[in-house]
Amino acid sequence: MNKTLTTPISAEDLADIRVGDVIFLDGHIVTCRDVAHRRLIEYGRELPYDVRDGAILHAGPIIRKVEGEDDKFEVVSVGPTTSSRMEKFEYDFIKQTGVRLIVGKGGMGAGTQAGCAEFGALHCVFPAGNAVIAATQVEEVEDGHWRELGMPETMWVFRVKQFGPLIVSIDAQGNNLFEQNKVVYNERKDAALEELYEKVRFIK
After folding, report:
1. Tell me, what CATH number does 78's domain have?
2. By CB count within 10 A, which of 102, 138, 142, 152 is most buried?
3. How would you write the pLDDT of the chain (204 residues) with one tens digit per residue?
4. Domain count, the chain
5. Which pLDDT belongs to residue 202?
6. Burial 161-180 (b: 16+ CB within 10 A, else e)
7. 145 catalytic, yes or no?
8. Which domain holds residue 139?
9. Rounded to an integer, what distance in angstroms lies between the CA atom of residue 13 and that of residue 85?
10. How far apart (Å, rounded) are the C-alpha atoms in residues 135 and 162?
11. In-domain check, residue 185
């Protein structure tokens, strides 16, 4: 399935999406990495931007000021950060914020699975190596919150158009593409090793 989600996103919008599907995003997405997660979950600080029914991006973008414009920025590149770094926070993050779409790099674990299934959210992977392409899909940098944290950890608010492709790795039913694939890979590995051992059995 190829589908475009537009913020704000409802639970109904996610109902027919499954792991392995490819989606695109129109509307808004907010960069949100380690420190923002920690401030919310560990320190109990309220996020400066409401992401309920919205989307977050595990990324530390490269941003530059627009020449001749006060407090106006543009994106140079925006490559996703490894999502597993946020795994220990993500269940509580989804529960507290009501975010619907989480975009990053690589798989996530049981906590994120549970959060997506219980509260109706997706985790998606933005293909690696496309940071500059992703930047072209940002129509405007509308704001930046917690700028004292520095460029990578600032919560940048992007207005995006056809942001993607985003590959669904965890769906709103809690299915986890990476974990499913591990089972398949291990089965193939065992079969390959059996064949290999037969060929090299003479080696002591």
Report:
1. 3.20.130.10
2. 102
3. 689 999 999 999 999 999 999 999 999 999 999 999 999 999 999 999 999 999 999 999 999 998 877 889 999 999 898 999 999 999 999 999 999 999 999 999 999 999 999 999 999 999 988 899 999 999 999 999 999 999 999 999 999 999 999 999 999 999 998 777 555 555 666 666 666 666 666 665
4. 1
5. 66
6. eebbebbbbbbbeebbbbbe
7. no
8. 2-176
9. 27
10. 11
11. no
Residue 31 CA: distances (Å) to CA of 90, 108, 130: 14, 17, 16
Return the structure tokens found at 12. 């109904």
In a domain, 172, yes or no: yes
Cβ–Cβ under 8 Å, residues 80 and 103: yes
pLDDT for the residue numbered 179: 72
Q: Tell me, yes or no, whether 202 lies in a domain.
A: no
Task: Measure the CA–CA gap between 37 and 47, rounded to whole angstroms.
Answer: 9
Q: Are 122 and 116 in contact (CB under 8 A)?
A: yes
What is the pTM for the complete model shown?
A: 0.87
Considering the domain boundaries, does residue 106 fall inside one?
yes
| Beta carbons within 8 Å of 69's beta carbon, 6+ residues apart | none
